[in-house]
Amino acid sequence: xxxxxxxxxxxxxxxxxxxxxxxxxxxxxEMGYAATSIGGVAARxxxxxxxxxxxxxxxxxxxxxxxxxxxxxxxxxxxxxxTGDLTVLLQGLVEEFHSPAAAAALPGLLADFAADPSLKxxxxxxxLAPSKERLLIVFERAVxxxxxxxxxxxxLVLDTLAGAVFFHIGLVGEHPTPQLAGRxxxxxxxxxxxx
Amino acid sequence: xxxxxxxxxxxxxxxxxxxxxxxxxxxxxEMGYAATSIGGVAARxxxxxxxxxxxxxxxxxxxxxxxxxxxxxxxxxxxxxxTGDLTVLLQGLVEEFHSPAAAAALPGLLADFAADPSLKxxxxxxxLAPSKERLLIVFERAVxxxxxxxxxxxxLVLDTLAGAVFFHIGLVGEHPTPQLAGRxxxxxxxxxxxx
Lengths: 195, 195
Prior knowledge:
CATH architecture of the largest domain in chain A: Orthogonal Bundle
Oligomer: homodimer
Distance between the termini of chain A: 34 Å
CATH superfamily of the largest domain in chain A: Tetracycline Repressor, domain 2
Largest sheet of chain A: none
Shape of chain A: elongated
CATH topology of the largest domain in chain A: Tetracycline Repressor, domain 2
Order of helices and strands of chain A: HHHHHHHHHHH
Strand content of chain A: under 5%
Number of domains of chain A: 2
Helix content of chain A: 55-70%
């Protein structure tokens, strides 16, 4: 959630936070989503369950953050071109979806989202919000450079980028080539650029 | 090659086939993927379980065909432009992913694919083959019109089209607008066209 202002005075210990995130990713990769529990994560991270529940409402939120927001703290790409910036964002998605934790987490996470309408309703507004913020800044710079029009639909482009990577790696199970992020970025950038 | 006892030399009855497909889609939409069984489909379709097992190895194959190949028998679009053809293909995907049967089938189907490496290994070669064939013909015509280069990567474009629709409708749960297929088609066509 790199785009949010830093929360001042939050009593969160960054070492516990990092330990919880690492323990979650490791447990999911080793045991699968179903067998991963808040109690198991707490034990592995050396914290109390309450510490986890103060920060995450439940397992889906915790696993999503541990597995699918690994690049949210990275600097927002500013390569000078839309294609370059999208390549960097896509490379992050490729690495996330190609991780053992992602392969282990996805089916159970999708089932939990699908089974709980209140959780599903928060995918766009909560779970995808940090990625959208990053893409919005990339788009703003591309508008200033005259590459794309103001009002280019950021939600639909985000769904296309994430959906392509999810389908290719997470669903079909392709091993990503080094060129994958660049090839997808080239297609999408060209597809939305003013010409 | 089926290991079931041979039938009495009767060719496959297209009415049974259609009845089985309809019963499967209806059962999945009503009861969910987990509660749908080959026995339940057989009873609803008025056929024996053997009749189903002669055609489909198991529930994932049957449900996939019932829910996600509804447009495979439609004429391959030939509108005169790549954007037009992709719009037709995408409209079919939008309708499939927006169906009640798809929403009910997806989490369980994805879990079955993920849990069975031999099933997952057949996604590209078997499950996606008819869609790829259709896209290949659309691409061949676009190459002849000079819109795209020969060798445009059909697998990656198919993953992008299907992934975008899956993510937008199946995962995020967006209600598709009438413009969705055309907007996605315009982006992808422009993204792969020669300019």
